[in-house]
Specification:
With 265 residues, this protein is mainly beta. The chain contains one helix and twelve strands, in the order αββββββββββββ.
């Protein structure tokens, strides 16, 4: 019992420091939900499928903070039992970068402000493990990563009375995440969960020509993100006949959220 209490105290300390750091620094969100720490696959082992939607918002440094907004639709296939699960997703995502082309120099006139592209495919792989202290309470850990195919857009304008036109790409956008989760199961099998996570993400920005206020030279440059800390929480509701509704949200500098319908075989 002392061991259990020690684990609980350690976990709650992690949650506390996660919330503390979130209040002190801005971070970007990760793509896609993490889900409850305990697998929704049957206890003896089996498959689980899902369809879901995720609204993602994050900030990247491209000269200054630029807000990335994505609407993601995906399907998921997982296999596991009551204590572990591996899963994969495939889906489509748009991307809007607010004020990506806003001309900082006064002499720049640009055809539009925002970078936009529609329905580019992405993939996600993940794994999770869970340790139950009893039938109502447990703790888990997960690892999850996503990769997005290149996003493209075109922009034109004039700078110092000289016209320009460029094709712009956001290339090799990916993230990797690791986190912990505390789960409480109440009657009738409703699961509440929350916890901290750490994230690493990066991408490359490529342009066929210089764009005032965005890139000074044609070519490709790395969009730095690095490691960040965040927090997440969610609920899983049984719908009957093997179906569950999962709702999850995350907050750091910006809020991201989504929902999925899961079916267990």
């Amino acid at each position: 019992m002392r061991k259990v209490h020690g684990l609980l105290k350690g976990f709650m300390a992690i949650v506390f420091w996660a919330v503390f750091f979130l209040s002190c620094q801005g971070t970007a969100e990760a793509s896609g939900p993490f889900g409850p720490p305990r697998s929704l696959s049957r206890g003896e082992g089996g498959l689980a499928t899902a369809i879901g939607y995720w609204r993602n918002e994050s900030d990247y440094q491209i000269g200054r903070d630029r807000t990335f907004r994505q609407n993601q639709i995906y399907s998921q296939l997982g296999y596991g039992n009551k204590n572990w699960e591996i899963y994969g997703r495939i889906g489509f995502s748009d991307l809007k970068i607010s004020e990506a082309f806003r001309g900082d120099p006064d002499s720049a006139i640009i055809s539009k402000n925002d970078f936009e592209d529609q329905w580019i495919w992405f993939g996600t792989l993940g794994a999770k493990g869970f340790y139950p202290f009893n039938r109502a309470f447990g703790i888990g850990a997960f690892i999850q990563g996503s990769y997005f195919k290149d996003f493209n857009d075109r922009v034109s304008g004039t700078f110092a009375d000289i016209p320009f036109a460029a094709q712009v790409k956001v290339e090799n956008l990916w993230d990797a995440n690791f986190g912990l989760g505390l789960q409480i199961t109440s009657f009738p099998r409703i699961k509440f969960y929350l916890g901290p996570y750490v994230r690493y993400s990066e991408a490359r920005l490529a342009s066929s020509a210089p764009i005032p206020g965005l890139v000074s030279n044609a070519g490709s440059q790395r969009i730095p993100e690095g490691w960040h800390l965040g927090g997440y929480a969610g609920i899983s509701l049984p719908l009957g006949r093997g179906f569950h509704l999962n709702i999850e949200g995350r907050y750091s500098e910006r809020f991201s959220a989504g929902a999925a319908v899961v079916y267990t075989y």
